[in-house]
Design brief:
CATH topology of the largest domain: Creatine Amidinohydrolase
Shape: globular
CATH class of the largest domain: Alpha Beta
Largest sheet: 6 strands, mixed
CATH superfamily of the largest domain: Creatinase/methionine aminopeptidase superfamily
Radius of gyration: 22 Å
Distance between the termini: 25 Å
Structural class: alpha+beta
């Protein structure tokens, strides 16, 4: 259940001061090693806000920008009235600059307002080498503004930060375990929520409510449901329109962050009344693939190496190859590195937190049961304890 807080305290989850100082120290040391004076990251995406949250614990609204300099000074910009505070002053983060800018990400007439603010900070403090984190999410107009400042160098610092973020501290793994436990508590309630005649949407809304009451944090859209005779695609809330019938396989994916903002996921299957034999065979093969992949996830092996070996395993079993990814890291972001795809060279290290979910397509079914694992010296240890089977209701 949601932790009870003193009346008026609206901040549900908070890493310790020691954890925040650990992060700042690690990032500052990496910056100095690469000669970077200032890091900048921005997001308007609640699914991929990990870089902002790593520095300030939370993501404010739909427009959040963090500046972090080599001496661990932090500044924050967000949407709001000119000059007003963009970040709550009671969240325990000391900010050098804390300002709102009256701009949405789609407001073209304000393209240069953020760039002008950052330009002022750079000039005032004499920063010369600027690192951008997650250029995919960075406002293009602001990036152009930075590139046009004379006398500075703009570099991509995403990999530098990913190498730090992807390895979890003991405290972070504790938060992840809390999230794993929350997901399993929701699974325990599902047999009481599924019966013929209900719509997927009714079931989905119950799952949303359970997640909120269980301690789910501010973004719950990744609760997907699919009901059909053979296990297959799952759908978000807006597409959960089918009526549940006897003999359906109920395919549910939870990917919800907890109060402190740390993600976990779980993907399981239920069957109403009876289960098609094809589903049982497909799910069993998917768990075999998952165990094989978990054993590969040892320190020193790269994401792309595991992707290729897993596709070799699928080919050996005469199953379709994966063209997306077999799994990924998690943290403040739903999907983080390492990516087990055809491109990510990141090498695994101990204490990386992973979602291991290889996809198996077999006899008209498709299954990628998801479980959370943590990398150890001997392979990935499964943190999810929920039964790995098709549960008959």
């Amino acid at each position: 259940m949601v932790k009870m807080l003193p009346n008026g305290d609206r901040f549900q989850g908070s890493p310790s001061d020691a954890e925040m100082q650990r992060r700042y120290k690690a990032v500052s040391e990496a910056m100095k090693a690469q000669g970077i004076d200032l890091l900048i990251t921005a997001t308007a995406d609640p699914l991929q806000c990990q870089y902002v949250r790593y520095f300030v614990k939370v993501k404010r609204g739909v427009f959040s920008v963090v500046l972090f300099d080599k001496d661990s000074n932090i500044s924050f910009y967000g949407h709001g009235g000119d000059g007003t505070p963009a970040f709550p002053t009671n969240y325990g983060i000391k900010l050098l600059y804390n300002e709102c800018i009256p701009v949405w990400m789609n407001n073209c007439v304000g393209d240069h307002l953020l760039g002008d603010k950052i330009k002022g900070v750079i000039k005032k403090h004499g920063f010369k080498k600027i690192g951008i984190i997650s250029r995919q999410q960075f406002p293009s107009a602001t990036y152009e503004d930075l590139k046009n400042i004379s006398g500075i160098e703009v570099v991509d610092a995403t990999d530098m930060i990913d190498q730090i973020i992807s390895v979890k501290s003991e405290e972070e793994l504790m938060y992840h375990q809390q999230s794993v436990d929350m997901h399993e508590a929701c699974c325990a309630a599902i047999p009481a929520l599924v019966y013929a005649g209900r719509t997927e949407r009714e079931l989905g809304m119950d799952l949303y409510r359970l997640s909120c009451l269980g301690g789910g944090c501010d973004f719950l859209s990744n609760i997907s449901v699919g009901t059909m005779r053979l296990c297959g695609p799952m759908y978000p809330l807006g597409n959960q329109d089918k009526i549940i019938e006897e003999g359906d396989c109920i395919n549910i994916l939870f990917e919800v962050p907890n109060q402190a903002g740390y993600y976990a996921d779980i993907h399981r299957f239920w069957a109403l009344g009876n289960c098609a034999p094809e589903v049982l065979e497909c799910v069993a093969a998917a768990y075999e693939a998952q165990d094989y992949m978990a054993a590969l996830c040892k320190p020193g092996v790269s994401g792309v190496e595991i992707f290729n070996v897993m596709n070799e395993w699928l080919a050996a079993h005469k199953l379709p190859l994966e063209t997306r990814m077999h799994g990924h890291g998690q943290g403040y972001g739903l999907v983080e590195r390492p990516f087990f795809d055809a491109r990510d060279p990141m090498v695994l290290k101990e204490n990386m937190f992973l979602s291991v979910h290889p996809l198996v397509k077999y006899k008209g079914c498709q299954a990628f049961p998801g479980d959370n694992h943590v990398v150890t010296k001997t392979g990935a240890k499964r943190m999810t304890k929920w039964d790995r089977k098709v549960t008959i209701i």
